[in-house]
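Kindly go through the following sequence and its C-alpha cells. Advise at your convenience whether the C-alpha cells fit the sequence:

___
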Amino acid sequence: MTGVTLFDAAQAVREALATVDPETGEYTDAYTSSRELFASKGRACVAYAVEQAHTIAARKAMVKAMGEVVARDEARL
C-alpha cells in the first residue's frame, strides 16, 4: 500500500482496537491486518533510517579524505 504513512498505520491499529466482535469478545480481522501493516511500515522506516545513517557516515568519510588530499596538495604546492 503506497501512500500509507507509519502514523496512518498506527491510527488504523488504534481504531481496530476499538472494534471487538460482539459475539466472541475477540478483536476483528481488521486488528490483525492493521497490526501487520504497522509492523511492516515500522520495519521499513527503521531500514530507511539505518541506510541513511550509513550513507551520511560514508559521505563524511569521503569529505574528510578529500580534505586530507587537498591539504596535502596545498602543502606540496
User: Anything to note?
Assistant: The mean pLDDT is 92. The CA atoms of residues 4 and 73 lie 51 Å apart.
